[in-house]
């Protein structure tokens, strides 16, 4: 029995039927809704970004308002590589993940020393600093005009990144699924169990022989790397990098997506990204001026009546249903 598990039972790593259906549905979108492949790729990228935030918020209770810093670093890393002649997609993703993870590790020292409010301000400050650095370094980043001429090579030497979104969708889906499987293994491992312990009772974990600071540094660095991959995906599929990839709005939106879907479920970020972006697209078409009003109203309803997000409410409903069935069987 290791100190890390402490006798606790690890979650099952078996894939549930609903999970298989979920991923098959994403594949089906490619064939059934060809006109929405470009939007679909953006939803998948946002879902990957939300997944990275879920690792630190849902599993380690680190609230961040500057998570876009890592997303933007990944986007600029991949964009600058392609801008200067290296447009190979896979290596661009790897280097973007490394660059974002380095920034995450460097700033994690500040994160682990504070509590909720301190961490919130630090993450916000890091995000604003990265935004201003990119803005000031206009000869390199393009500043407010953005980084254009991001020319990507063919994926695996075969598939072009065209405006139809075919390659972008399948590429984004493949990367999302690969990273999701990795994240799923992480949260179902002894390390993931330790993170849950930190979330539920941070002060009790040292008694079990677990270093809280090491756990937080590790998950923060990991989440930063995944956010960097999401940023690189956006740069590669759109072949453009704007200053907004580092903006506060992007950090706020991804937090909203996670709240909508439900933090601490892994799938919450994916579901929340889909809800948010599809609603944004539909509501903007109905009313370009007032779509934020209706989205805000939805957020109020979610917070008041489904505080755990969509998946949190479904999980609570399922628990109530099982409890009623158990009482009825007595």
Description of the structure:
- With 330 residues, this protein is mostly helical.
- It contains 13 helices and no strands.
- The chain has a single domain, classed as Orthogonal Bundle (ABC transporter involved in vitamin B12 uptake, BtuC).
- Helix 1 runs antiparallel to helix 7 and helix 7 runs antiparallel to helix 9.
- It is globular and about 65 Å long.
- The N terminus is likely disordered.
Provide tags for this entry.
single chain; mainly alpha; ABC transporter involved in vitamin B12 uptake, BtuC; 13 helices; disordered N terminus; globular; 330 residues
Question: If you compute it from the alpha carbons, what radius of gyration comes out, rounded to the nearest whole angstrom?
Answer: 20 Å
CATH architecture: Orthogonal Bundle
Total domains: 1
Sheet having the most strands = none
What proportion strand? under 5%
DSSP helical segment count: 13
Helix content: over 70%
Helix and strand succession? HHHHHHHHHHHHH
Secondary structure class reads mainly alpha
| CA distance, first residue to last residue | 36 Å
Kindly state the mean pLDDT as a whole number? Answer: 87
Estimate the global geometry from the Cα principal axes.
globular
Unreliable stretches covering 5 or more consecutive residues: 1-7
């Amino acid at each position: 029995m290791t100190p890390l598990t402490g006798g606790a039972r690890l979650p099952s790593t078996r894939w549930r039927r609903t999970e298989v259906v979920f991923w098959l549905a994403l594949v089906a979108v490619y064939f059934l809704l060809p006109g929405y492949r470009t939007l679909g790729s953006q939803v998948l990228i946002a879902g990957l970004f939300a997944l990275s935030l879920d690792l630190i918020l849902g599993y380690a209770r680190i609230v961040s308002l500057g998570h876009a810093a890592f997303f933007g670093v990944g986007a600029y890393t991949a964009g600058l590589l392609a801008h200067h002649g290296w447009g190979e997609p896979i290596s661009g993703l790897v280097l973007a993940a490394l660059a974002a993870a380095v920034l995450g590790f460097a700033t994690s020292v500040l994160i682990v020393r504070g509590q909720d409010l301190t961490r919130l301000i630090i993450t916000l400050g890091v995000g604003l600093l990265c935004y201003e650095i990119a803005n000031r370094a206009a000869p390199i980043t393009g500043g407010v005009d953005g980084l254009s001429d991001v020319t990507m090579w063919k994926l695996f030497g075969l598939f072009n990144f065209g405006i139809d979104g075919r390659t972008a969708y399948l590429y984004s889906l493949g990367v999302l699924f690969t990273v999701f499987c990795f994240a799923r293994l992480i949260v179902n491992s002894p390390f993931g169990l330790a993170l849950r312990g930190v979330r539920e009772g941070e002060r009790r974990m040292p008694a079990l022989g677990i270093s809280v600071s090491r756990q937080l540094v590790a998950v923060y660095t990991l989440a930063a790397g995944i956010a960097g991959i999401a940023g690189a995906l956006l740069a590669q599929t759109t072949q453009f990098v704007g200053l907004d990839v580092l903006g506060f709005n992007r950090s706020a939106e991804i937090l909203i997506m996670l709240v909508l879907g439900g933090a601490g479920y892994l799938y919450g970020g994916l579901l929340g990204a889909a809800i948010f972006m599809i609603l944004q697209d539909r509501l903007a078409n109905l009313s370009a001026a007032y779509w934020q009003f209706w989205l805000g109203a939805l957020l109020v309803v979610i917070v008041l009546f489904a505080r755990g997000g969509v998946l949190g409410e479904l999980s609570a409903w399922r628990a109530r249903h099982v409890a009623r069935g158990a009482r009825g069987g007595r």
